[in-house]
Each structure stands twice: as structure tokens, then as C-alpha cells.
Amino acid sequence: MSRQQQRPRNKQHKKANETCTLTINSLNSDGVGVGQHQRREMHVAGTLPDEEVKIEIEHQGQRRSIGRLLKVLKKNPQRVIPGCSLASECSGCPIIHLAYPQQLKYKEQRVTSALRFYPSLNNLKPNPVLPAPETFGYRTTAKLAISKSHGVAQIGLYKRGTHDVIDIGNCPQQHPLINKVVQAVRDEIEKQDVYVYNPITRRGILRYLAVRVSPKSNKALVTFVCAERNYREMTHLAKWVKKKVPEIIGIHQNINGSAGNVVFGPTTVKIIGGSDLIDTIGEIRMRLSPSSFFQVNHTQAAKIYNLVTEWAGLEKKDTALDLYCGVGGIAMHLARSGAKIIGVEINPEAIFNAKAAAKFNELYNCRFIAGDATDIIQDLQDDLPALKAAVVNPPRSGCSEEVINTLADLGPETLLYVSCHPISLARDLDLLDQRGYQAVELQPVDMFPQTPHVESVVRLIKKPI
After folding, report:
1. Helix/strand/coil for 321
2. What is 15-79's CATH number, 2.40.50.140, 3.30.70.260, 3.90.550.10, 2.30.40.10?
3. Domain 107-133+298-462 carries which CATH code?
4. Per-residue pLDDT tens over the stretch 203-213
5. Domain range annotation of the chain
6. CA-wise closest residue to 32 among 45, 14, 50
7. What's the pLDDT score for residue 61?
8. Rounded-to-integer distance, Cα 55 and Cα 76, Å
9. Within 10 Å of residue 163's Cβ, how many Cβ atoms?
10. Looking at residues 245-252, what average pLDDT do you find?
11. Which pLDDT does position 171 carry in this prediction?
12. I want to staple 118 with a disulfide (CB 3.0 to 4.6 A). Which of 271, 288, 326, 430 is the partner?
């Protein structure tokens, strides 16, 4: 039979928008259920292992397909009723339907699974995850997208797998004051007919709303992120929002004209009120600017800072280094020992805040330097005294190999690694093992209940020569 005469293959794969049933085998690192269908991985949000589900096939790929949950035919015993009516659509809380004790086990498994790839880490057994006392209402920072259709404003997160904004209304994850601000901004956008940015046409002004709250003072700092500067319209909006929410201490405008999905642009200007929010973590008062990074869960952040301080074991005669120090939360907790602390951070705004906070906490033994971590520690290398401890708290991507090598050359007695991503953590711990540092204790911390994210604190010591 010639090639032209061959019968066409019988395509057995179901097309998109057809329905099928399958069994979910596991949760992936995004908290999405994974099963097998027609020799492909089928990813279905809102499902749990061992569940039999009916789904609609939304997308078929070569190796991976995506389905939308229609009905759970056989439930996992750990399934709970989500505490949010938008759970099936919103991307903010992927495991909200999983009982909280089981969420902690899942997060511990994520850390353990990442370590298994490296023989050097075979003896490192994570402690049980430190649970969060508040599993809802803990988020003190929100960065929310804004859209508008037929005069109706939506402020919230993106619908799962799309760039359509879901109006979150009264989000159970957020601090109540954030929800109050969101409602006021939404009302005023509609009342004043504010020109909202459209990412498809790239026309419009208002793109995002960022809100930062201090739980202790119950005050908020608000930022309107705009595609271009529009002082008059944003000032009018700010005045009316501030009138509705007197807990707001300041409103800023950030300019972000880029085409991507990064929230903040390079320029921020004050519209009304104060420039910064004063917040408290543990015994330390922090100064926070609109776009500076800070942990969203104050209670769990304090646990991390206290654990790092305990494991560092500093005395007044000691010197310690804090890389990726942000606004100085860990550094200032360490400084309470009286030791000399040097914090390094690439964001100059964060360093400005850290210096101000050190001053009003009267921690004059803190020194903060703005710059790239690798460059700064290489510059400091010849002048630094022997380090009792070094702390690294890198972004999700982890430390560069250059940073790890330079740190190892500095030779601190104790190295403390704070991580927000198990995969990069395991990779870096293996590299540090090759450079003579053994990980001896790993404490996962649940910073983000209802999500798959897990923080970890690791204590490393020098291997005996």
C-alpha cells in the first residue's frame, strides 16, 4: 500500500470541550491535581489525589492537557468546603479545598521530594511544617489587577489560566482593611468613570491597585499603578478614597508603561498623605515604602526571624552578614544581640527603609549597603573580620553559584538559608555541601495557607576538615 493509500490514523484522543472521567493521582507543585488520560498528563485545578472526577477538556497538548472540573464523583476524605465562593475560578488559593493538616503534609512532601534529587542531602530530614495560627485573613499586602467593562470595575486576581480579572469582593485571605480599600476604590472608579487600562489595546490609565496594611496600627498605604502619569485624575480619585477609608495614611502613584505583567514600574510619586508605613514585626519597627518587598504574613515572618536569630547564636563580639536583606527585618533582629550586622540588598529603596528603621530602633550596630550581593561581598572580603554567621534570603531563583562560592570563601561558622522555593533550595544546599557546608537542620514554615507555597529555614555548619 502506497503512502498516499494508507488509511488515516484513528484519532482516539478527545478534543477540547469534550468531557471525560479520570482519577487524580497526585498534586503538582502548583497545587493542581494530575491524572492520566489518553497517555497524557491531565491537569485539573480544584481536585485532590484519589478522587474520581468528571471534567471538560479545555486544552490538549502533546504531553499535557488541561481540564476543568465539572463534578467530583468520588471524594478524597480530606476535601473540605472552600471558604470562598470564587475558589473554582480564582488562582489565589489553589489548595483551599484541602483540609489544613493535610496542606501541611503536602508542603512537607514538597520539600522532601526536592531533597531526594541530591545524594548529599539524603540525611537531611525536614522538621514538621510550622503551622500558621491564622489560615485566613493573614495577607497584609495585595497587588491587584484592575479591569472595566461596560462601566463596571473589576479589581482582583486573574481567572485561572487567563488574563481575565475576577472581582474578588471580600477576599477571605486578605486583611479586612485591604478589602475595605478595594471596595472604596472600585466604587470611585465607577462613580468617577476612571479611565482603566486595557492590556490588549494598551490604552487607558489605571492598571493595578497595591495595598499594604499594618495589622498593629490598622493603617494602610495605597498605590495606584498607572500606565502613564495622570496627576489630576489620580488626585481626585485619591481624595475620595481617603475620605471613605480614613485608615489610609498615604496614597501614591506608580508609573508602569511596560507591556508585561510586572506590577510596579520604576517611578513612584506621592499624591496625598504620608510616604511610608510604619509596621512592627516582633520587637522591631519597620519602615515600608509602597514597592519595597516585605513578608505578607507577619506572624509567620516573626517565627522565621526568631528562628534565624536563635540558630545564629550571636554575641556582642561577633560579626554577621545578611544577604538579600530587603528592608532589614532579619538583620535588625540579629542586631539585638549587640553583634555587628552588615545587610546587603540590590534595591536602594529597601536599603533606604532599612537604614531609617535601624535608626528609630536605635540599632546603630547595623550597616546597610545597596548593591549586587556578589559585588558587595567581594568588595568587603578583605576588610571583614571573621564571620560568626551569614544569612541568605534570596528570591525564588535562589543564589547564583558565584554568590555561593564567595560565601564559602568568607567561611562563616554558621550559614543560615531562608528559602521560598524547595527546588532552588535543594540545588543550593548541594552546591554548599560541595564547598564544605553541611545542612544539619531544616524547618519548613507555612507562610501562605491555602496555597502550595512553603518557606524553609536551613542551618548549615562547616564540615570538619
Report:
1. strand
2. 2.40.50.140
3. 3.40.50.150
4. 999 999 999 99
5. 15-79, 107-133+298-462, 141-281
6. 45
7. 85
8. 16
9. 11
10. 98
11. 94
12. 430
The mean pLDDT value of the chain amounts to 93
pLDDT band at 15 (very low <50, low <70, confident <90, very high): low
In angstroms, rounded to a whole number, what is the distance separating the alpha carbons of residues 163 and 148?
A: 13
Residue 372: its H or E element: none
Catalytically annotated residues: 420
The DSSP secondary-structure symbol of 183 reads H
272 burial class (0-12, 13-18, 19+ CB within 10 angstroms)?
middle
- CB 25, CB 51: distance < 8 Å: no
CATH architecture of 141-281: Beta Barrel (2.40)
Tell how far CA 346 is from the center of its chain: 18
Q: Does residue 244 sit in helix, strand or coil? A: helix
**What does the block give as the cell for 161?**
489560566
If one counts every other C-beta atom within 10 angstroms of the C-beta of residue 407, the result is 24
Q: Do domains 15-79 and 141-281 have the same CATH topology?
A: yes
CA distances to 66, 170, 352 from 161, rounded to whole Å, are 10, 22, 37
DSSP assignment of 382-433:
TTPPPPSEEEE---TT---HHHHHHHHHH--SEEEEEES-HHHHHHHHHHHH
**Contact (CB, 8 A) for 166 and 89:** yes
pLDDT of residue 149: 86
Q: Report the run of H or E that residue 335 belongs to, with start and end.
A: helix 329-335
Instruction: Say which amino acid occupies 229.
Output: R
Single pTM value for the model: 0.91
Q: Which amino acid is located at 353 in the chain?
A: N
Report the distance separating Cα 229 and Cα 241, nearest Å.
19
Task: Read off the pLDDT of residues 313-348 as tens digits, 9 standing for 90 and up.
Answer: 999 999 999 999 999 999 999 999 999 999 999 999
Rg (CA), the chain: 25
Inter-axis angle of helices 422-434 and 100-115, nearest 10: 40
Per the document, the length of the chain is 465
pLDDT at 12 over 50: no
Q: For residue 45, is pLDDT > 50?
A: yes
Distance from CA of residue 122 to its chain's centroid?
28
What value, to the nearest 5°, has the Cα angle with vertex 384 and ends 382 and 386? 115
* Band (381; pLDDT cuts 50, 70, 90): confident
Rounded distance between C-alpha atoms, residue 266 and residue 157, angstroms: 22
